[in-house]
Amino acid sequence: MQRVGWSRAPSHPRRHMRRAAAVMTGRCLTALVGGYGLSAALSTLVARLLPLTRVEATVWAMIPAFLLYAGVALWCFHEPRLSRVVGGVWGGAIAAVLMVWWLGVRP
Questions:
Q1: Three-class DSSP category at 91
Q2: What does the alpha-carbon distance between residue 19 and residue 16 come to, in Å, rounded to a whole number?
Q3: Contact by Cβ (8 Å): 72, 89
Q4: Is the Cβ–Cβ distance between 69 and 35 less than 8 Å?
Q5: Hey, is 30 helix, strand or coil?
Q6: Nearest CA-CA partner of 88 in 67, 105, 73
Q7: pLDDT per residue over 48-106, tens digit each?
Q8: Local structure of residue 9 (DSSP, 8 states)
Q9: Is 89 exposed, middle or buried (0-12, 13-18, 19+ CB in 10 A)?
Q10: Cα–Cα distance between 92 and 41 in angstroms, integer?
Q11: 98 in helix, strand or coil?
């Protein structure tokens, strides 16, 4: 016996729009904030590891950071899976920050 009004139709279109909006918001936040965090953490790590004076190491590490930030932002919107984007960007940023913290202050 079937219920009256019961249908197996797909869910409401608004539900799909909300999910798409949430995914796009996650991508935007990861690209803007996470990309900045990743590029800043990696440039700090590279500046710490370069065998130059502090000023020269900072300058040489900051130059590719701009390209890295743009590349990460583009990748955030190119990759189909949001979980891979979030894991790659935020995980990389956390790993770089932990390595900088582990290395300590440059003598």
A1: helix
A2: 5
A3: yes
A4: yes
A5: helix
A6: 73
A7: 999 999 999 999 999 999 999 999 999 999 999 999 999 999 999 999 999 999 998 87
A8: P
A9: buried
A10: 9
A11: helix
How many other β-carbons are positioned within 10 Å of the β-carbon of residue 45? 18
What is the per-residue pLDDT for 18? 86
| Secondary-structure percent of the chain, ordered helix, strand, coil, rounded to 5 | 80, 0, 20
Token representation of residue 15: 């539900």
Q: CB count, 10 Å around CB of 40?
A: 17
**Rounded CA gap, 25 and 17, in Å?**
12
**Segment 6-27, tens digit of pLDDT:** 556 566 677 778 888 999 999 9
CA distance 75 to 27: 10
Eight-state DSSP code of residue 31: I
Structure tokens at 66: 């701009």
The tokens of 91 are what? Answer: 């995980």
